[in-house]
Amino acid sequence: MKKLIITSLLLFISAICLSQNLNTKKLDSLFQLLEQHNKFMGTLVVSQDQKTIYSNSIGFADVENKIKADSLTKYRIGSISKMFTATLILNAVEEGKLELDQPIGKYFPKIDNSHQITIKNLLNHSSGIHDFTRNEDYFSWNTSFQSKEDMLKKISNFKNDFEPSSKSQYSNSNFVLLTFILEDIYKQSFQKILNQKIVKPLHLNNTYYGKKISSENNEAYSYKFLGEWKKEKETDMSIPKGAGGIVSNPKDLKTFIEQLFIGNIISDKSLNLMKNIENGYGLGMLQFPYNDKISYGHTGGIDGFESVVSYFPEDKLTISLSSNGVNYNKNNILLAVLATFYNNSYDLPNFETIELTSEDLEKYLGTYSSDQIPLKITCTKQGNTLITQATGQKAFPLEATVEDIFTYEQAGITLEFNPTENEVTLKQGGGEFLFKKE
């Protein structure tokens, strides 16, 4: 649910070759490396024509109790929940209970512009309603119970970011409101609606609205890597609703998206509405290009969980990935799958690093500012790990690759320090920005 880079498959660059013989040995080698170097914990499922052609689980669902992840381990799937919620809304439209162009003022009269904002505006993030997860105070209350009244008050107290339909901007608030609309029209909880309309008909035995995490129920906790895997705090599941509150696993997610595309949940007309991309967003669905091919699906992130499910209609290919610990850019895992599926070249990553002591890190500590961008970087340490935090963002750990050079592969960030000059150069996405220690 937290805001992540949602263009998960947009950076894939590779030549197409239409071989569909998945190189499972290459993927096995990749996952062995990822596990050996504490880069990833989670499960991958790849299927074609509804048949699983590769599956692998690595790491621990519960590090503290050394419970290994397996194919049935369940993960919080974050914003992939939005695709379920959008499907339920479109099903309600088909049943005549809602209309896409109807204003939401009937349900939320206290929200700015509620008599102009439509159901469709909520679905494709063109409402202008502020995303409550982007507020600086969000992480001060996200682990505490919030009632429906609490959430509506928080959302309605925000000023809108823009006029409805004038642009698009990702907002979790939109799908929390859609959840409340569903509960209002069906007079049932979101959990019951989800069960009745999707889970039971598709036999998704590992999919449900989440509660407090329980390893006894084969649910994974989430972690951040700080020299070792450290457990993340849990978002209270009274908050995310249909924006990010569903628990599932890659096996169920691949079944869901396959059944969605073959017409077993909603009509082709409704599916085409979901797939119609305006200003980067469909109706609860995203589009991911891979050269001349197009896939549809969604990404998700909440606490330390990250997930993605993507379907390529042309090849009937599904990739479903859920993780509870990522110390590596999951984009690269998806790239590996696509490269091996389409028989393109792919080199296994090199995870060589250098070991530093806590004393070695002293020369990098401090706050750095730049004349190029209005951002400050603060470097601290935790044990033998260098921790970096940019203005308004969560802190993240760095790994030393060579002397004075650190990386955060999950976001493609490199920091090159010059301790003598009290400088550091930030490199990301082809840009370079010089910072000086204050």
UniProtKB/TrEMBL annotation:
It is an enzyme of class 3 (hydrolase). Keywords: Hydrolase, Signal. Residues 42-332 form the Beta-lactamase-related domain. One of its GO terms (molecular function) is hydrolase activity. Pfam families: Beta-lactamase. Coiled coil: none annotated. This is Serine hydrolase domain-containing protein. It comes from Autumnicola edwardsiae.
